[in-house]
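QA checklist item 7 of 12: single-chain prediction sanity check.
[x] sequence parsed
[x] length recorded as 71
[x] structure emitted
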Amino acid sequence: KTVSNYFSKKSKDAGLVAAGFSLIAIYHGLQLFTFASKLVYVLAHVSLVLGFLSLLLMLIKVDRYAPKARL
């Protein structure tokens, strides 16, 4: 769903969300094959870290441009 949202909106924020969730999904897929190689284990966790970093970048970007509430 997030990938189709990115292709319909073509915004950088939607791309970061789509990349984040896709990388987390790749992590889960690679976890199935960690018994085969230690390299697959490392790649899976690198994919997870990159996925969370992508989501974090999107949150930082959105927070930076969000209007601040006056107290």
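[x] summary fact logged: The chain has a mean pLDDT of 87.
[ ] second reviewer sign-off
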